[in-house]
Amino acid sequence: MQWYLFDQRELFLASDEMDLIAYSQATNKPWRNIKPVSIPTLTHKQMRKLLEQLLLRLQQGWSIREALQQLTDASSSRERLCLLGLEYYLRQGHPLFTSLSKICHGELASFFALLPNFSSSQSYLIALESVMAQLDKQSSLRNQLLQAAWYPMFIMISSVLIKFALTNLGMATATFVDNIIMLGIILFCGLFLLLTLSGWLPRWLNQTHQSFSLANIFALTTTQLKCGTPLHAALLNLTTLPKPATQQIELWEANLNLHNGKDLTEALPKSWFDAIGWSYIEDIRATGDSIKAFHYTHEYHQEKVACILRRVKRVAPIIGMMIAALTVANALVSIYGPLLEMNQFA
C-alpha cells in the first residue's frame, strides 16, 4: 500500500496503479498533481501537542472534522501529512481513535486501539485527556531517569578521563583489564542515554516491572470506565498491551471469571490492591461505583512508582561515586605503587 498526495491537500492510500487511476478519474484530479509520499512518525512530544490542540477545539464546540481541517491548515509539513492521513481514515468511516492508531506506531498505537469509539463528545474529551496524561507520564519518567543518572554518569566519565589522561602522560599505567573496564563504563553510560532518550527504557519498565505495569493497567481501566466501557470489556482490551507474563495470566483469569459471572472479589487478583483498594472493590456491589476503586488503586501504584524513582535517585549517585573512586584510586596506586616499592628496598 502506498500513500499519494493530491494538490498538497488530500491523501489517498492505493494498493496499485489501478486504484489510483480510478480515484483520479472519479475525483477529476490530474496525474501531474499526484505524487507518492510516506507518513512520518510523530514523536510523543509532537503527538501530545497535536492532541492538546485538538482537545482545545473540541472543548470549544468544534466538530472533529472541523478541528482537524483547521489544524491541517496551520501545521508544519511533517504534522500536515499525519493530519491528512487521519482525515483519510475518517473519510473512510473509521472512528477517531481507530484512525489515530493507524497513523501511530508502537505503544501509542496499541493505546489508541484499545480505546472504544464513543458516541458522546464528553467521552472523547475524557479519553483525549487520558492520552495526554499517559504521554506526560512517559515524558516525566524519562526525565526522572535522566536526572537520576546524570550526576553519576558525569563523575564516572570524569574519573575515566582522569585515568586516561594520567596514562597518556606517562604518570600512570593501565593494564588490559583497566582498559576494558574504562571502555565498559563509557559504553554503559552511552547506551543508557541512548535507550532513555529514545524512550525504550521507560517503555521497558512499563512492560516488565510490576508496579509500573499495574499503574498503567489501572490508569487505562479507569479511563475506559469513565467513558462508559463495561469492566469486563475494559479488562479484555488491556490483554492486548505488553506486560509481565504473570500479570498477563492474571488478567486473562480475571476476564474468564467475570465472563463466567463471578463476583469482582472472586474474579480480580487481590494482590493488585492494598487494603483500602480491596475494601472499595468489596463495596462495589452496594455502591455500584467501580471508578472509585480503580482510580484509588491507580494512585496507589503511581505512588509506589514515585517511591522507586526516589530510591533510584538516592542510590545512583552513591554507586557512581564508588565506581569513580575505584577508578581514580587505581590510577593513584599505579602512580605511587612503584615509589613505595623503591622506598621499601632503599
Automatic annotation (TrEMBL):
The chain crosses the membrane at residues 149-174, 180-201, 318-339. The keyword Transmembrane helix applies. Keywords: Membrane, Transmembrane, Transmembrane helix. This is Type II secretion system protein GspF domain-containing protein. It comes from Maribrevibacterium harenarium.
